[in-house]
Amino acid sequence: MILLMVLLAVIGGCLLSIQAAVNGRLGSQVGVLKTAFLTFSIGAMITVLLILFFEQPHDVTLMDVPKWRLLGAFCGVPYILIMIFAVQRIGTAVATVAVIFGQLTMSMLIDNFGWLGNNVMPFSWPRVLAVVCLAIALYFIYASNRAETQAN
Predict the structure, then answer these.
(1) Global pTM exceeds 0.85
(2) Residue whose C-alpha is closest to residue 88's, from 151, 12, 23
(3) In Å, what is the CA distance from 115 to each residue of 26, 80, 105, 112, 129?
(4) Which of helix, strand or coil describes residue 62?
(5) What percent of the chain has pLDDT over 90?
(6) What is the pLDDT of residues 113-141, one digit of tens each?
């Protein structure tokens, strides 16, 4: 089951990269905000259908949870807008690796301190080394893009 979840997360990452590349091109043609609106509108319609046909009933509703837990919904808008804007200027690879670097760094802080009600998973050398390796990868991908852009 764990391997399946890791595989699904990798597939999710692949889909985000495809979305970033497609939205970056669309955003350069029709505008960043219109592209973001399209993404969220279609996403909302698909989610409504999934809720209607597949969602199991829960004892707690969205109105019953602490209101701070609803703030996660606001995180998607800046992400989509930033990616549409960034991909046009720095490319899909650099933008994606930068996002993953940000995700990994913040997720390790959340794990380490148990923020937002999550279980504590302390920093370890392998985890810190993973962030450093990703930072190095980000540098090399960015530097490669710059070198190729300057050569053209």
Answers:
(1) no
(2) 23
(3) 36, 24, 13, 8, 22
(4) coil
(5) 85
(6) 999 989 999 999 999 999 999 999 999 99
